[in-house]
Amino acid sequence: MNKIFILLGTNLGDRLQQLSLAKQSLEQQIGLIMQESSIYETAAWGVEDQPSFLNQVILISSPLSALECLNLTQKIELDLGRVRLKKWGERAIDIDLLYFNDEVINHPNLIIPHPFISERRFTLEPLAEIAPTYIHPVYKKNNVSLLNNCKDELPVKKISDDESYRH
User: Fold this and answer.
1) CATH of domain 2-158
2) Cα separation, 159 vs 141, whole angstroms
3) pTM (2 decimals)?
4) Residues sharing a CB contact under 8 Å with residue 163, sequence separation 6 or more, in sequence order
5) Domain named 7,8-dihydro-6-hydroxymethylpterin-pyrophosphokinase: which ranges (predicted)?
6) In tens digits, what is the pLDDT along the chain, a chain of 167 residues?
7) What are the residue ranges spanned by the domains of the chain?
């Protein structure tokens, strides 16, 4: 089984419901959710003039390939109302594949590990929470080390490690 770390993000509509619906769809279509981080409220990154996001990292166990997972996550995004108007713009749901096992994948449609992991505090905070010692296969540093060296200063606030916020 493949181990896939996935970042979920949403800043439109009922954000908690969007996270829950995304996790339900991922479990139905891709595989078993083995771990979930707390939910974090984060300032928008890239295009900052937009509502704040809720972000969460999950770990899924799946028999599917990385490209099969990408195709399904993009379908789930569309099913949940994702409209791609501009890069890093607001969205009902965003599903990013962060790590796929310890593989390095350079495909025209998919780069693994996700190319912005080390630059985004909103990714590293929840990732370091559930996988602190996981080693980035390119940088050869664990997630805590990447977080400690991250230059992103946008606020990331844990809003829940309470089970009532989880699916």
Assistant:
1) 3.30.70.560
2) 27
3) 0.89
4) none
5) 87-98
6) 999 999 999 988 899 999 999 999 999 999 999 999 999 998 876 656 668 889 999 999 999 999 999 999 999 998 887 555 555 456 678 999 999 999 999 999 999 999 999 999 999 999 999 999 999 999 999 999 999 999 998 889 999 754 444 44
7) 2-158
